[in-house]
Design brief:
Largest sheet: 6 strands, mixed
Structural class: alpha/beta
Strand order of the largest sheet: 1-8-7-4-5-6
Oligomer: single chain
Number of helices: 20
Low-confidence stretches: 37-44, 341-346
Number of domains: 2
Amino acid sequence: MGGAPSTVLAHDLYWTLLWQALVVVVVAMIAAILLRSRFLGQDLSLEPRARRVLRMGLGGLWLVSALLLAQPGMAAALVPSVLNPAAAVAPPWSGSLLALVSRVSLLHPVAFNAAAIWLAAGLGLALLGVSRGRSGRFVAGCAMAWALLVWVFGEGLGGVFGIGGSLLRGSPGAALGFAAAAGLLLLPWSQWESGIGARWARNCVGGVFILSAVLQALPVNGFWRVDGFLNLFSAVARGGLPRPLAQPVQDLGIALTNLPGPANAMLVLALASLGVGLLIGAAPRALSVAAGVIVGFAWWFGQGFAIFGGSGTSVGIGGVLLMLLVAGWPRPAGAVAAPIEQVRSPSSDQIRHLARVGLATLAVVSLVLGPLLAIAVIAQQPAAQAAIADSGGVTGLPPDAAPDFTLTDQLGRSVKLSSLRGSVVVISFMDPVCFDNCPLMANQLATALRLLGPAAKQVQLVAIDVNPTFNHVADVATFTQEHLLSNLTNWHFVTGTIPEVGKVLADYGQGVSIPQVGMVGHPQTVFVIDKDGRARSMLADSANENLTSSYSQLLAYELRKYL
């Protein structure tokens, strides 16, 4: 299980999605055959164009979100790159719930990501396949409810209540835009036929603009300072944008360092005036075009289109606002909202009906069965995947001879690394008076041995005492006894003089820090040495108490390669 964490987890995620997709498709086919003429007998040709644009646009954005969640690095990046930043700008009550979501994702990164993918894909397919009637309202209601949950517990309320909130940074959050768009689909059909629905779409954009003007004007959000725009635009330029798109962003950030006040004042004024204009319905076409320019600017220069960098989960608020502006494009005065008319024939009617039934059935099965299959995995004990997402997994090393050393273990015996050849050796670094990380790591190592069963006899655990004060045999013996490691005949907690241990640390590229107050800061690296005395792999152990079983499974998996 060595290699980059994103590669390892992506492999596991794609295999998980593959077998889940097979189950989903089979169940959907059976359900479609049984229900092909029982429901969804709707005529899409009667749907007003504005509503159809909004429904299909929203469905397409949900599918894009599913694809973004399936990026190779997302299983490893979901917590550090998405959930943790959202928790940092969320109110305390939302942040605590986000922490719980982060913990579930950390313990089961692949299953959690798979569930999120199926929910997004199912909602997208459902919106594309269902337009009216009770089923259409149900789908729109589900999309709105799920988007609001994501906004609260996945986006931290879009950063509205945190420091730095701005439309440029994606506030008030793409999920809120998803929820607003889904809510518009709940409007009566007649309001879309009369043009009221399109006006509500423009009103949503206007409301976001007014809120954005307030956020942009607040001094605490930093855009009146010299480095306000520069810091944001520089981060966007480095965030994965292709160079032709990144260079203008970087250049503008540098240029605005000379006039941050006037630039921010102009942006606040533009947002406020456009927001008010959209809400009162003045010059709707001209204001829609102007709003589209502002949204496009914010989407490009402030959000980097939200899809680059490998950790985006949606197109961002910019993409959603542009969709709302397109759906809300005002028709000429006095014109009647025309339905979508098509050339029809009995055979094409039947094909369209079967396609809608199949699409909607696949959506329903995806929404229900996919997450259930993922939750079934989440209910189990955390797998080694959790440790990979947490620490980066196991890193392979060139098969060079491991630096030799001779130190003394907890029984006063001399232990020479080269004398352990013929066994797989695990080298770690511990402090005998540490009371948090070291006991956890020792427990993980002992658990990994138990997972190996009889093969554990071929493994030797060597922990090196890195505390320059508590570096006596009595110190490592006390640690061994207190943490119930005395019964492990292949456990060696070794110590030596400061120069001896210092040389070992240098040979293995490790270091320690000695604070005036508090515990010694030491490496939490684990090396695996094969039976021929060659260093083969390295694991950075975070000593996360929630992931003890995961780290043990990961280490046991690695050890089996060399037994």
